[in-house]
Amino acid sequence: MDFPTHTSAKLDETTKNLLNPDLLTNSEASAMESLDYDYIDSPLVLSEKKRLFQSSTYLMLLNVKLWVVTFLIGFITAMFGVFIDFVTNTIIKYKIILADMAYIHTQGAYWFPYIVLLSSNIILVGISSALVLWFAPAGGGSGIPEVKCYLNGIKVPEILRLRTLFVKSVGVILTVSGGLACGNEGPMIHIGSMVAAGISQGKSSTVPLVNTPVFTEFRNDHDKRDFVSGGAAAGIAGAFGAPIGGTLFSLEEGSSFWNQALTWRTFFCAVVAGFTLNTFLSGVRTHNWSPDDTSPSFQITDTSPTYSIPHVPFFILIGALGGILGSIFNQLNKLLMQFRKRINRMKIFRWLEALIIAGITATISFSVCYLAPGCVSIGNSTSTDDITFRDVGWYCGPGEKNQMAALFLGSGELSVKSLFNDNTFMSHTLLIYAVLYYLLSLITLGIAAPSGLLVPCLAVGGAYGRLIGQWLQPIMSDVNVHTFALVGAASFLGGTARMTISLCVILIETTGSVQRGLPIMVTLMVAKWVGDYFIHGIYDIHIELKKIPLLEWDPDHEMSDVRAEEIMADHVIWLYDVEKVLKIHTILQKTTHNGYPIISKDEVFQGLILRSQLVTLLYKRAFQNSKAPEEIPLVDLSEFSKYYPRSPGIESVQIYREDEDKFIDLRPYMNRTPYVIHNNATVERVFRLFRTMGLRHLPVINEKARIVGMITRRDLYNFQAKRNKNKLDRARKRRKSPNIEDVQYIEGQHSLNGISESTKLLSD
């Protein structure tokens, strides 16, 4: 609908009094918004539900759609996994063949095969990084922090777009085949989430022509987030072939709001992904299209006794070592990311950084193969048949293989499988590999290219875990180095990412080692405890660096001492239940809030209405000449989800001068029963409401049921940030002057309200 150019009109005095100029001047909408997991309980929605739910056919069709979408998410995510695995290994294969031809042609010279590897790696990584920087910046990294935030209730821009999916899937192939110290498992979680978001909505913002009306019922934050939970689980299953671990990952690391039905659908989605992955990988590799012909990703083929009780103390020590090494890794990467943020502000510099790291990785990888090949007899190798180029014999004698080449020149997944199974690794080879791959993973994490951290952590931990096992063999004859490699892998990944339940199950599923479950669990628990003592997990650190207001599982115990009125924004902009068109239009122009309280004539709180609803009502001209209620709502319910998730902005709405004094009856459209909190309630209760119910706004009322404030996720985040800063300041003062009296934190309502007010426009 097109409108003539609007002639600006002056605000009436009532509207002027509602708008706080200190809050509204130079305000900008935050790039990150909260999701609204709560359904809108409006008369319009309830009447439509009542009409639809009377039809058993509609309910059956809705249920069928739900499971069809879930199946499609699992199947398509797995197909992405098959495609990425096949193309990545194919590129690596031909890259090594080309380097091997150069090696043979120069009769074992250093420079020619090195130049072949160096140039191919730089080209592959350069293309991947360019796609991220100039086409879809949200496609960089693993995507796990962003998906975790989305499932926590935060809408991070661009992370679920179609072009991001393209860049992520193509970029991770180029990055992994380009030899960087990274894996495709983290990006697969992001890919699964993007697949889920796209299929469940039946439309694409990137390609407007893709818009089917089949799944319009799911175009809301609640259902979309539930499907993304299944997509994240399918990503794990499509990468590792671990459906149970994927389901637990979605629960442990991501989703804030969970129920029994969602558990079953998520597990079904992950099982479909795992079955599809195994079937198609079997067909691609052996031409036998059966899921039974594909072994687990990191299956340990050794059948000797796995461990005994005297080994448990060593597992605990390895867990502590993993926690310490993981904490050092996280701290160094945090400092590196802060340094990158200060100096790499131009895209060209970030692209050059990716090229330099690709060059460094290629140089170190090839040089160590040349200087310390670790040559062993091929006849003694027990590597599985699908390890690409395990028998590369560069710089070794006849009938020997280069162990360093087997570890550095293939993909990280193949290196992990080799560490878990090969019996020929020498101690110095494992030590050099663990140290160098640790450092390469450290500098690779955070570059402008799709890259995952899970497999590099497994490789580093597997190397030092196996090394410890080999050192113990002269002392304890029953040491199983394969078990120690697995325990080491669990310790470093647990110490870095702080995953426990899901990682334990993933490792059990991918290695086929249920009997090793106890040492894995013990190691993970110790690694997490030790790591948490020093610093947060790596994904939480990256979330903090991006200043995303993630809410943790549990509230700070100090929240029980603070009241809701101390953190709320008390300059609330409200609307009457029947309001003037001009006033609504002006408020939407002058503010960036996403929710507005509705009050009655006697100023009693009546409900809440969203910004997108108000824009739609103005856009559809739901005007009336008087305040009398309309018998039938003027706007159909389908109009409010028509443009989801991007409703038209207020700038697209123009108002005729003759419409300015007309009214809009908001009562049929507003949420009449939103969650509210009393102004004397504790912040701990506020936190639990946000965390468990998935709220976007929380109106604060007094004993007379009058609106006195508004709390959003950003207010809680700012409160926690202020607390943490004060704790750090007090600790510094104690170190400098131990006798100085500690400073009380709570400075009064005005100070805390100032924090909330200054950021309110960027919060909801």
Automatic annotation (TrEMBL):
<feature type="transmembrane region" description="Helical">
    <location>
        <begin position="425"/>
        <end position="446"/>
    </location>
</feature>
<feature type="transmembrane region" description="Helical">
    <location>
        <begin position="66"/>
        <end position="88"/>
    </location>
</feature>
<keyword id="KW-0868">Chloride</keyword>
<feature type="transmembrane region" description="Helical">
    <location>
        <begin position="453"/>
        <end position="472"/>
    </location>
</feature>
<feature type="transmembrane region" description="Helical">
    <location>
        <begin position="312"/>
        <end position="330"/>
    </location>
</feature>
<keyword id="KW-0472">Membrane</keyword>
<dbReference type="InterPro" id="IPR046342">
    <property type="entry name" value="CBS_dom_sf"/>
</dbReference>
<dbReference type="GO" id="GO:0005254">
    <property type="term" value="F:chloride channel activity"/>
</dbReference>
<keyword id="KW-0677">Repeat</keyword>
<feature type="transmembrane region" description="Helical">
    <location>
        <begin position="262"/>
        <end position="281"/>
    </location>
</feature>
<comment type="similarity">
    <text>Belongs to the chloride channel (TC 2.A.49) family.</text>
</comment>
<keyword id="KW-1133">Transmembrane helix</keyword>
<dbReference type="InterPro" id="IPR051280">
    <property type="entry name" value="Cl-channel/antiporter"/>
</dbReference>
<keyword id="KW-0813">Transport</keyword>
<dbReference type="GO" id="GO:0016020">
    <property type="term" value="C:membrane"/>
</dbReference>
<feature type="transmembrane region" description="Helical">
    <location>
        <begin position="484"/>
        <end position="508"/>
    </location>
</feature>
<dbReference type="Pfam" id="PF00654">
    <property type="entry name" value="Voltage_CLC"/>
</dbReference>
<dbReference type="InterPro" id="IPR000644">
    <property type="entry name" value="CBS_dom"/>
</dbReference>
<dbReference type="Pfam" id="PF00571">
    <property type="entry name" value="CBS"/>
</dbReference>
<feature type="transmembrane region" description="Helical">
    <location>
        <begin position="227"/>
        <end position="250"/>
    </location>
</feature>
<feature type="transmembrane region" description="Helical">
    <location>
        <begin position="351"/>
        <end position="373"/>
    </location>
</feature>
<feature type="domain" description="CBS">
    <location>
        <begin position="670"/>
        <end position="728"/>
    </location>
</feature>
<protein>
    <recommendedName>
        <fullName>Chloride channel protein</fullName>
    </recommendedName>
</protein>
<dbReference type="InterPro" id="IPR001807">
    <property type="entry name" value="ClC"/>
</dbReference>
<dbReference type="InterPro" id="IPR014743">
    <property type="entry name" value="Cl-channel_core"/>
</dbReference>
<feature type="transmembrane region" description="Helical">
    <location>
        <begin position="109"/>
        <end position="136"/>
    </location>
</feature>
<keyword id="KW-0129">CBS domain</keyword>
<keyword id="KW-0812">Transmembrane</keyword>
<keyword id="KW-0406">Ion transport</keyword>
